[in-house]
Amino acid sequence: MKLIIAIVQDEDASRLVSNLMNEGYGVTKLATTGGFLKSGNTTLLVGVDDTKFDGCMSIIEKVCKSRKQIASSPVTMGGSTGMYTPYPIEVTVGGATVFVLTVDQFVKY
Predict the structure, then answer these.
(1) Taking residues 19-30, what's their average pLDDT?
(2) pLDDT tens, 37-93?
(3) d(Cα 107, Cα 49) in Å, to the nearest integer?
(4) What distance in Å separates the CA atoms of residue 8 and residue 13, rounded to the nearest whole number?
(5) DSSP structural state of residue 26
(6) Burial class (CB in 10 A: 0-12, 13-18, 19+), 87
(7) Rounded to two decimals, what is the model's pTM?
(8) Helix pair 10-22, 53-63: axis angle to 10 deg
(9) Which of 29, 19, 28, 30 is nearest to 55 (CA)?
(10) What is the Cβ-side half-sphere exposure of residue 9, based on CA atoms within 13 angstroms?
(11) Cβ 6 vs Cβ 27: under 8 Å
């Protein structure tokens, strides 16, 4: 058995949870906050039998595609005036960060 810990962007989370549940996977959803853009993300915990592991990973890969987005840069100093001005930068968002752990024992009460 495996425990999949998938950290996904909030805008992908609902669709991913729906797809996983429609395919019979049990999902626990945790609200978390990302570090880079301080944007909301969601951490999903999915326990799967080894035989269903590849199917679960395929769903995560299909739903959580990375994409480009314009964001404000970290603030930079502008000229000799000492003013701080943000500027737009293109960043890659979305996708999923996935951790897979082997589970020795699973108990459900």
Answers:
(1) 96
(2) 556 789 999 999 999 999 999 999 999 987 776 766 665 555 555 566 667 776 666
(3) 13
(4) 6
(5) -
(6) exposed
(7) 0.75
(8) 140
(9) 19
(10) 17
(11) no
